[in-house]
Design goal:
Layout lengths: L6 E7 L3 H12 L6 E7 L6 H10 L6 E6 L6 H10 L5 E4 L5 E2 L3 H11 L5 E9 L16 E3 L1 H8 L10 E4 H6 L11 H12 L2 E13 L12 H15 L7 H20 L8 H10 L3 H9 L2 H13 L1 H14 L1
Parallel strand pairs: 1-2, 1-4, 2-3, 6-9
Antiparallel strand pairs: 4-8, 5-9, 6-8, 7-9
């Protein structure tokens, strides 16, 4: 390993004073040495900023630290976008400030970059603590080591690939050239980011080695009992997804969107304080492709026109897949 690839680790920091030193230490313990670490402090109200400043001041080692202080709180999406825009690395790695990475994390992922030059994304395995049965983050044996070609990747990875943007070594050019920034003003931003990432990716590598240690914390965004931000964010995500459906994953995407909308409606109806969100949910359900739309297409022989066009452009196999998808929706 020549350590010739610069990796930018981006850590958004907001009110994680209790956990951040553990995260910081995992970065400085990396066996890989060509690392810059960009900490984006998002106007914490605890001692997170002071802790970060002290840790950086007392550190003497190979990792180059950059501490960026936001003037106002923008949320996780904005913090990550700030990190991307200030990064110099050929590859970017997102790390949450209440988690940590294994000592050999970056080294293991970079080795796959060297094995598969210019790969868009390298995914590592995740160790969740405390351990749970049927851990959705446990990927061992589920993914091939390498896949190339957008359609091939969608087939290999669309089912098991984790939603999260963290624990992925991502080509900086892949992000910037495809405008794969995070949508501001929402939570669950990784859900939407993955949706657009799969539309554009052309190469992907994976290692079974544990690279990331995720801690399940009772005070995290994902476990907050106030469902209003969660519901409104998912509705915004569904709206974007419905406007950008992917023909290769049409059936799977429509199934996921339908389930997601039904789940949000159930949450809204569970408590009257969420009822102001009901009209937007109903509007999105009304925008969802209806059975009668496809019946009308078939009645005017549009199905066969679409099939012929798809066959000419994308080949017989994808055209057959599209025709079957239409049939299931009728």
């Amino acid at each position: 390993m020549k350590d010739n690839i610069l990796v930018s680790i981006i850590i958004p920091l907001y009110n994680k004073e209790q956990y951040f030193e553990r995260c910081f230490d995992s970065v400085v313990r990396q066996t890989y040495k060509n690392i810059e670490c960009i900490i984006v402090e998002d106007c914490s109200t605890d001692g997170s900023l002071e802790l970060a400043e002290r840790l950086i001041k007392n550190y003497a080692g190979n990792v180059k630290f950059l501490l960026i202080k936001h003037e106002q709180n923008g949320g996780l999406s904005v913090a990550r976008n700030t990190g991307i825009k200030n990064s110099n690395g050929e590859y970017i790695y997102f790390l949450d400030s209440d988690d940590e990475i294994t000592e050999n994390c970056i080294n293991s992922l970079v080795m796959l970059v060297e094995q598969y030059p210019s790969v868009n994304i390298v995914q590592g395995n995740v160790y969740q603590y405390p351990r749970v049965e049927k851990d959705p983050y446990e990927l061992k044996g589920k993914l091939p080591e390498f896949a190339s070609g957008n359609l091939e990747i969608k087939k290999c990875y669309s089912t098991y690939l984790p939603v999260n943007a963290w624990n992925k070594l991502i080509s900086n050019k892949f992000i910037t050239q495809n405008d794969l920034y995070f949508k501001p003003g929402i939570i669950h931003e990784d859900y939407l980011w993955r949706f657009f990432m799969l539309k554009r990716i052309s190469s992907f590598a994976y290692t079974d080695e544990y690279c990331y240690i995720r801690y399940f914390l009772p005070d995290s965004i994902m476990t907050n009992l106030n469902l209003f931000p969660s519901i409104s964010s998912y509705l915004a995500i569904v709206e974007d997804m419905l406007s950008n459906l992917d023909i290769d994953l049409l059936e799977e995407q429509l199934l996921r969107i339908r389930k997601l909308l039904n789940l949000q409606k159930t949450k809204i109806l569970s408590d009257k304080k969420y009822l102001p969100l009901l009209p937007r949910c109903q509007m999105l359900q009304a925008k969802f492709p209806k059975r009668h739309l496809f019946v009308r297409l078939i009645s005017y022989d549009m199905k066969w026109t679409i099939y012929v066009i798809m066959q000419k452009i994308f080949g017989k196999k994808l055209a057959e897949k599209t025709k079957k998808a239409f049939k299931r929706l009728i």
